[in-house]
Each structure stands twice: as C-alpha cells, then as structure tokens.
C-alpha cells in the first residue's frame, strides 16, 4: 500500500500573509494548505521510491496535462538527479496526454482523453503516469483501461494529491504525495477554469472566487 502524508480534515493550514502569494489572488484564497517547500521535499522522496521500484527498466514518463505539468517537471528533475548521482541509472523518455473531467468546480461524469491515439507507442514499455490529483478515480481508471489496450510491459501511477471524498470509486495510485480533505484546491498548476496555475503553494479556494472565475 502506498505511503503518503495525510492532511487532516481539520487542518487549519497557514495564513496567506506568511507566504509570497500573487496580489491578484489574495482575495480569492482561504489559506495555504501545502507550502511549496513541503511539496518539493515530498516530491524528492517520491522520486526515490519510484527509482527503487522501476529503476531497473527504461521508464516512459507520461504526463497528464494540464494540471500535472509542474509536478511532472519537478519529479523528473529529482529522478534525473538520482540518475546522475548513483550507480544505478536508467533511460528516461517523456510523453503527454490531456484528460478533462471538470466544469467549474464539479467533476463531471464525462471523461475526455485527448491524445489517446498516440498511446500505441507505449506497447511493451514501462510506463509511469504522472497526475496532479485523483478525486473520484474515474479519470485514471478510464486512462488505465485505454492504456491496457496498448499492452505496456508495466504501468505505475504517481499522483501528487489524492482527495478523501465519498464520491471516490476506491481507486488508489501506486505512489501518493499527500492525501487531502474534500475541498477545492488550487495552485502548483492546479487550476480553477485555467486560473491559479501561477500560484506556487497549494491553497483552498474561497466561495467568492468560484463565482468570480466561473465560466
């Protein structure tokens, strides 16, 4: 079972004025729930765990866009550092896919996978899927089902966040950074209708901002 750092439901987080938060977002956020430094430390440990389990094989890292791009880049930097500074190193190549399942702050029943035709190139490969957040799990289950048709040799999933929610299908990734409360989180490339990707920390979005940026 994957180990993770749990953020409790009653976790109060941190006051915004303790951190550098873009001024244009100051009135849109409740609190900082995971500071950037903690994200980076946890990501470094995930990289070590992944290399321990998959380090004997060529790894194809598959980034789930758009939200996963920041975590993907930082995770690969740590894996690259391990490759350069240890006796064990493996080739690492990258690919990208886009999955969309949100409208405003609601996870929809419809999961759209963009770029799936290119997954055939992953046949016989060792694949690491890199995701920003798993909520219901249906998005990842859809992607895994699609990927299985291409017959990869191995598939592992790493998600920075897993949300505790009654809507969960029960799916859990192989590697988890943080287990978080059932709140709408933004920052570190997590967005609300494309806003807040330029926020370094992971924060809780307030209700006024949901209306302000609603499409």
Helix vs. strand class: alpha/beta
Q: How many helices in DSSP terms?
A: 4
The total beta strand count reads 10
Spatial ordering of strands, largest sheet:
1-8-7-6-3-4-5
How much strand?
25-35%
Can you summarize the main beta sheet?
A: 7 strands, mixed
- The share of residues in helices is 10-25%
Overall radius of gyration: 17 Å
Shape: globular
CATH topology description: Rossmann fold
Keywords:
215 residues; cytoplasm; Hypoxanthine phosphoribosyltransferase; alpha/beta; guanine phosphoribosyltransferase activity; PRTase_dom; seven-stranded mixed β-sheet; Rossmann fold; single chain; transferase
Characterise the protein shown here.
One of its GO terms (cellular component) is cytosol. Keywords: Cytoplasm, Glycosyltransferase, Magnesium, Metal-binding, Nucleotide-binding, Purine salvage, Transferase. It is found in: Cytoplasm. The structure is a single chain. This protein is of the alpha/beta class. It is 24% helix and 31% strand. The protein contains four helices and ten strands. The protein has helices spanning 36-54, 69-84, 138-148, 207-212; strands at residues 5-6, 29-34, 59-65, 92-103, 106-114, 126-134, 154-163, 175-180, 185-186, 202-205. The strands form two sheets. The protein has a seven-stranded mixed sheet, with helices on both faces.
């Amino acid at each position: 079972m994957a180990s993770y750092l749990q953020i409790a439901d009653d976790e109060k987080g941190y006051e915004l004025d303790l951190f550098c938060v873009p001024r244009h977002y100051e009135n849109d956020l409740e609190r900082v729930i995971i500071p950037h430094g903690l994200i980076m430390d946890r990501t470094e440990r995930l990289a070590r765990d992944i290399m321990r389990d998959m380090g004997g094989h060529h790894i194809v890292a598959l980034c789930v866009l758009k939200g996963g791009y920041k975590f993907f880049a930082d995770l690969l930097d740590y894996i690259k550092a391990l490759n350069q500074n240890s006796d064990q190193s493996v080739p690492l190549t990258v690919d990208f896919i886009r999955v969309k399942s949100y409208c405003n702050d609601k996870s929809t029943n419809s999961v759209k996978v963009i770029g799936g035709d290119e997954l055939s190139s992953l046949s016989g490969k060792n694949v690491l899927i890199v995701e920003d957040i798993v909520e219901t799990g249906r998005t990842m289950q859809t992607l895994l089902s699609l990927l299985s048709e291409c017959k990869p040799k191995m598939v592992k999933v790493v998600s920075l966040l897993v949300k505790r929610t009654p809507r969960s299908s029960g799916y859990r990734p192989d590697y988890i950074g943080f287990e978080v409360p059932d709140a709408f989180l933004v920052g570190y490339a997590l967005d609300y209708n494309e806003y807040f990707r330029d926020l370094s920390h992971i924060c809780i979005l307030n209700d006024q901002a949901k209306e302000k940026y609603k499409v």
